[in-house]
Amino acid sequence: MAASTSENLPSSDLKPGTFSPPLPTDLRSPCPAINALANHGYIPRSASILSPYLDGDTFEPNPLLAWPLRNAQSGRDGSKTGEWVLNLDQLAQHGIVEHDVSLSRRDIAQGDNNSPQPDLIAELLAASTDGRFLTVPDFVALRRKRYATQKQDNPDLKFGSAELQLASAEVALILQVFGDGKKVPVEYVKAFFQEGRLPR
Questions:
Q1: What does the alpha-carbon distance between residue 110 and residue 183 come to, in Å, rounded to a whole number?
Q2: If we measure between CA atoms, which residue out of 166, 171, 167 comes closest to residue 184?
Q3: Which pLDDT tens digit goes with each residue over 49-73?
């Protein structure tokens, strides 16, 4: 997927596919994939998503994301048309797409479970064995390390089979979409997690 970048254009003037970092008023989720879609305009850049985007039959950017978007708590958009609306920060609701032992976010019991944490992203990038690619074994080793750390730091840790399945699916998505299924370039992971953009 080719991605261009903005040239100081207002977000309303940007074409879908053009990357622009979120404005201070734009809301984002704990999911880097959903955030990247918003930063590229594939879903509303403001991250207030009206009901047509929440319909699994019409959610065009990535049908895999329709389920978490539909199942997060949403409410009526009283300021506009009265349609159902979802703000992306609502996805920080525990157990929808957010889960403990994230590769880039704190656990909910530790406070902010929505914002990317520079130290965790640095740990993710440093997990590469050769400094060029992150492989399946690299991700497995990092997740085990994160789990051990969180068991010590978070007495309320919840990371059972459901959370493990979701966490594994996240890594598989990264490897399949941005890599060859077995490895992904570190520079792509940096773009995705640290910059919030689609690397290609």
A1: 31
A2: 171
A3: 655 544 544 444 444 455 555 555 4
